[in-house]
From TrEMBL:
The lineage of its organism: Bacteria, Pseudomonadati, Pseudomonadota, Alphaproteobacteria, Maricaulales. This is Outer membrane protein assembly factor BamE. Keywords: Membrane, Signal. The keyword Nucleotidyltransferase does not apply. Residues 143-166 are annotated as: Disordered. GO terms for cellular component: outer membrane. Residues 37-104 form the Outer membrane protein assembly factor BamE domain. It comes from Marinicauda pacifica. Residues 1-21 form the signal peptide. Residues 156-166 have a biased composition (Gly residues). Transmembrane segments: none annotated. It comes from the Bacteria. It holds the Pfam family BamE. InterPro entries: BamE-like (IPR037873), BamE_dom (IPR007450).
Length: 166
């Protein structure tokens, strides 16, 4: 009886572990406000200070225009060993005029995103490229001049005082 009971317990535990491994894990990154709590901003009235009070610091600012603020949030789903998948993304773009007053509001979602194909190229370096054999045999026959030229091999390199006082 105890053998059957231990097999049954181990089968239940194994099934529970397998079921837990298949459950997706959702991770939220960035600023998220609760559903239905959409912040209301008025173009021409709200300022940088009122936006900071409502949303806090932006996720990032424009690279070329410091007066453009981006609030970015994303929800990603992780499932076991598979690549994570973005379920929801929201980018709130706020542009301010020179006086710090809100001039424009735009919102982007997952459907507005585009896949960017990166080109993996290497920039060539100057000089010639050595083959493996040239790299291995390149120093054969070359001896450092100071080793046999009367200089002593001092600990810590060639710097420091010499025994002859020079």
């Amino acid at each position: 009886m105890s053998l059957r009971r231990s097999l049954a317990v181990s089968a239940v535990l194994t099934g529970a572990l397998l079921a837990a491994a298949c459950n997706p894990t959702l991770r939220t990154h960035g600023y998220r406000y609760s559903d239905g709590e959409v912040p209301e901003f008025t173009v021409g009235e709200d300022t940088e200070a009122t936006v900071l009070d409502t949303l806090g610091n932006p996720s990032t600012r424009g690279a070329f225009e410091d007066n453009t603020w981006y609030y970015i949030s994303a929800t990603r789903e992780y499932l076991a060993y598979l690549r994570p998948e973005t379920r929801d993304r929201r980018v709130l773009t706020l542009r301010f005029d020179d006086n710090g007053t809100l001039a424009e509001i735009e919102e982007y979602g997952v459907e507005d995103g585009r896949v960017v194909a990166f080109i993996d190229r290497e920039t060539p370096t100057r000089g010639r490229e050595l083959t493996v054999l040239e790299q291995l045999l390149g120093n054969v026959g070359r001896l450092p001049g100071e080793t046999f030229g009367g200089e002593q091999n001092l600990p810590g390199g060639a710097g420091g005082p010499r025994p002859d006082g020079s």
